[in-house]
Amino acid sequence: MVYVKAQELVARRTSGFNEQIMFIFNKYSGMAPYSHEFIEGMQDPQMLSGFLSAMQSFVAEVAGIKQRGWKIIYGQDTTLLVEPANWAIGVLAVTRETNEARSKLRSIVLEFEDTFQFLRDEDTIDGSLFDDFDNFVRRTFLVDRLTKRTMIVDVKRNISLHDMFKSVKMKFEIARIIKSAREGQTLFELANELNVNFDDLVNIVSIAIWNNLINVVFVPDENDILSLSPGSLGFLLSIENPESLSIETIRTISRLDGRAPLYKIFETLKLDYPEFIIYELGSLLSRGYIQKVSIEKRLLLASECILTGVIQSSASKIGQEQTMRILQRAIIENIDRHPWLSRVFLKRDLSAYVALDVLITPREMSQIGDSIDHLIDNVSVMIGEVIGKKSMQAMLTRVKNTCNEKWKPYIIDSSL
Q1: What SS3 class is residue 157?
Q2: Which pTM does this prediction carry?
Q3: Residue 325 and residue 332: Cα distance in Å, rounded?
């Protein structure tokens, strides 16, 4: 009963992409050789690339520095996220800014520049060049969001697939999905109905979504680590409750810290009906009010785990006081080259954490992760001088294996 109620509630709410359009333009030619519309009928990417090319030159001239990542408020409900590489500049139009979206844009523009270096001095566009790259972009944006609970909310059945796909097999598989899919149905239910492997179904459904043939609500998995998007908290917890959220969902939102998996939050709150909450969270996730933490944040949390294991293991061998002295010495000696180490703290149980601001970008997350890794190396050397290099190496190997096992499911690149 709760499950059916959740389906009805989510189906009534706005669904679809927070993302609107993405394109990559050449800063030398001003042309955008690659683009993708998440929502049909968006602005012409060539027109937007000309506007942004001029804007970038203006910003560089006024600021006097090269901008690494910036944004433009475009109209009433659109923000343009801009991620420059060396000569290619990625732009993603979103309704609400999220680190998850910026992180994916950043990885895509770097992949584009690496793959299409020969286009640096070209001003022509050949769409057939980008078939494989388009698949990479699709997987980057979609595959990690398609869970068994992901809900279909709209199916376009009266569209000809003849000119849309080159492969006859692909046309058949997409047609089969479109014919069988029903509004309010989950991907797990669809896979069972068609008697197909779930991972195979995800790939086909992602292609259908990418071509605007199916619209879904991206319902999170219990293992997902979620956080609030900038500016969402005041809206979602306002006294008017504009989203008509359940009390249980409001309590869950208040605990989203970008560190704990969703199931841990449910356990802490002792919630009776997590199924219903997950579908409400899915509606918010699809529209950008909440977000899955970026890959840079997940890598940072894995590094935190290793630092924690080293500190706690050291304290059990040489004592907490001496371990604390070693950690503080390592931070002080390295803080000039790695200023982010000033944000490293220990809890009472000696677990390490980095104090993070909600507005820290994926690029900065990556820098913090590098700083933590450098600290781990230095602390390990210092502890090794006390307990012996072999003992320290054995300890470090054990800690890394434990943390790698814990964080591996969160770090596997689903775009590969």
Answers
A1: coil
A2: 0.85
A3: 11
